[in-house]
Amino acid sequence: MGMTVEKSDAARVEAWNDRYSIGQAVMYWPGKKGPEETAIYSKTRSVAGLTRSGMAVIWVEGRGGCIALSHVEAVGSLTDKFPVVGGFDSPGSGLAS
Q: Of 16, 34, 58, 74, which has the fewest CB atoms closer than 10 Å, so is most exposed?
């Protein structure tokens, strides 16, 4: 029969944690994931894990709760999407001492 086998959530967590570390730049969708939905760019603040119900999740900066790992994609770096023009102490930043 033409059924595709989905990777189990435990295997998805293991694969994510083998490939990425805490601080990985990601884009995530807090609701429905799809091309018409807007992704949010952030960084992970934990390793991936399983909820008590067995769902693969991860915690990202800027969110109080976890995000389903199926709604998270790793990106090269945040500066790939948001280039840094000057540092916090650059002239004109308002933060130079």
A: 34
Q: How far apart are the first and last CA of the chain?
A: 68
Q: Which two tokens stand for residue 86?
A: 């000057």
- Tell which wins on pLDDT, 88 or 28: 28
Is residue 91 situated within a structural domain? no
User: Is residue 81, in this structure, part of any structural domain at all?
Assistant: no
Residue 42 contacts residue 26 (beta carbons within 8 Å): yes
Task: Provide the number of structural domains found in the chain.
Answer: 1
* Nearest-angstrom CA–CA distance, 68 and 59: 9
0.85 exceeded by the pTM? no
- 54 three-class SS: coil
Question: In angstroms, rounded to a whole number, what is the distance separating the alpha carbons of residues 45 and 54?
Answer: 20
